[in-house]
Amino acid sequence: MIRRLSLVIPVYRGAATIGPLVTRLRTELQDRYDLELVLVNDGSPDDSGTVCRELAAADARVRFLDLARNFGEHNAVLAGLNHCTGEAAVILDDDFQNPPSEVQKLVAAIDAGHDVAWASYEQKQHHWFRNLGSRFNDRMATWMLGKPPDLYLASFKALSRFTIDQVIRYTGPYPYVDGLILRVTRRYTTVPCHHDARQQGKSGYTLRKLVSLWLNMFTTFSVRPLRMASVAGMLIACLGAVLAVAFLLERLYYPDLERGWASLMVTILMLTGSQLMVLGLIGEYLGRLYMHESGQPQFVVRERVNCGEVHSGANAANAGAAGKQGAADVVVRR
By residue range, what is the domain housing residue 289? Predict the structure, then answer.
């Protein structure tokens, strides 16, 4: 049975909610588990960092990581997983949409022998645009990652220690946490959970961030887009061959038929457009590979509070500096 439980919470514009959330989590869970809360301020422009720092100063069970800039939710989650020490970890948002009372349901699934347990919502309370993006992302994950169609990849989930240790081995600067999990294990389950309406503010996921997340999934965990490009190229080549035969026959049967420039321009635009699309796709793969090899950090920790231990997923130099507060620490795992 799990005794030490880590709660990993990426914080962005959560100054008004993170304090009450931590209080409720401690009230509902501290009697059941040896609790550890890992708060990761993901370059939030409000006072989230100050609030998290005060929470950590008041309670040694609260670990605080202040990232040097906004790296994105999945990078912040990996930063938290690298600094958690629990037998299991639950990842939840900072906006109360994941009720603290539901945490025990996910942990019970880990106790039952599963490596990961995702929350399953009967009705989501996100904005319609966010729900639309989530549905699109779910369809793409099914196609790209081989995810079962009935599995919804919610951000509210619990991971076993085994899964955490495997996931944090990823060294690239463009993580997609659910893809990392599915690459590690198929011993997962879903747990029915409530999803409450956001209490304050609005979601930090813009169209740009959603597109960036999709690209992370496409280019990090699958080569199917490249295979699609190859198939599209072959289809266009076949179409060109068919049209060439058709134009030749037309010329033989109707030698006096005038030819315009419209068909020529359409052909040129179609071919050059498809070539540029494929080159852009290849460039996206190569660019991300270059950024990885050039040492772009997955996250940069400006300050740590109550982080006396860095998990073995981080490199030795970072582990040695884990207890120092206020010193910038570029976390790049090799």
Answer: 224-293
CA distance 137 to 281: 19
Q: Are residues 232 and 216 in the same domain?
A: no
326 and 245 assigned to the same domain? no
Asked if 140 and 182 sit in the same domain, the reply is yes
Rounded to the nearest angstrom, the gap between the alpha carbon of residue 223 and the centroid of all alpha carbons in its chain is 18
The rounded distance, in Å, linking the Cα atoms of 270 and 266 is: 6
Q: What's the rounded Cα separation, in Å, for the pair 328 and 54? A: 19
- Indicate the number of domains in the chain: 2
Residue 157 near residue 106, CB atoms below 8 Å? yes
> Residue 68 and residue 52: Cα distance in Å, rounded?
15
Residues 172 and 80 in one domain: yes
Tokens of 308: 């006396």
Kindly report the pTM of this predicted structure: 0.74
Phi, psi of 289 (to 5 degrees): -65, -40
- 287/305 same-domain check: no
Residues 172 and 107 in one domain: yes
Same domain, 306 and 175: yes
- Return the H-helix or E-strand segment holding 90: strand 88-91
pLDDT, tens only, 243-264: 777 777 877 777 776 666 556 7
9-43 pLDDT, tens digit each: 999 999 999 999 999 999 999 999 999 999 999 99
In the block, residue with structure tokens 């309406």: 197
> Is residue 143's pLDDT more than 70?
no
**Mind listing the pLDDT tens digit for each residue in 144-192?**
667 777 787 888 999 999 999 999 999 888 898 998 998 899 899 999 9
